[in-house]
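User: Sequence recovery, please. Input:
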């Protein structure tokens, strides 16, 4: 398939139109934060619902998405105004598009995106994790890296 200027322009216009339509306020009604060091957070209807302490997995077909302590709670949008809910939804969709499962955890040990990604990697069965900071910085980490 050849990509010409007309097709590229149409794709960009569609993306920009979708971004304008998603500027609706998002409600982050969640139970009070637990004192557990980490919590799993499925991205279903209850956005970032905490279900307990995250455990190490042995599933080879999973990628951990590790978010910082303020993600979706104290901060709800990144530095360009995209809601955290939308960011998480798109990252999960991309992972699932490849036929892999996504698991979301909240890391309370640090808000540094590199440490969050390493902590997610420690719990990932596949050895791959994605760390996302509240302001939008993202790190992909693979097992065996320093």
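Assistant: Recovered sequence (146 residues):
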């Amino acid at each position: 398939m050849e990509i010409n200027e007309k097709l590229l322009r149409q794709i960009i216009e569609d993306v920009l139109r979708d971004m304008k339509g998603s500027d609706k306020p998002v409600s982050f009604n969640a139970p009070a934060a637990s004192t557990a060091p980490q919590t799993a957070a499925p991205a279903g209807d209850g956005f970032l619902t905490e279900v307990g302490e995250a455990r190490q997995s042995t599933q080879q077909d999973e990628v951990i998405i590790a978010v910082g302590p303020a993600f979706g709670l104290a901060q709800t949008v990144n530095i360009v105004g995209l809601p955290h809910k939308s960011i998480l939804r798109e990252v999960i969709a991309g992972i699932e598009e490849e036929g892999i499962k996504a698991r979301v955890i909240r890391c309370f040990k640090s808000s540094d995106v590199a440490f969050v990604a390493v902590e997610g990697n420690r719990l990932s069965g596949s050895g791959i994790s994605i760390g996302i900071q509240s302001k939008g910085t993202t790190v992909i980490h693979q097992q065996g890296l320093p």
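The chain has three helices and five strands.
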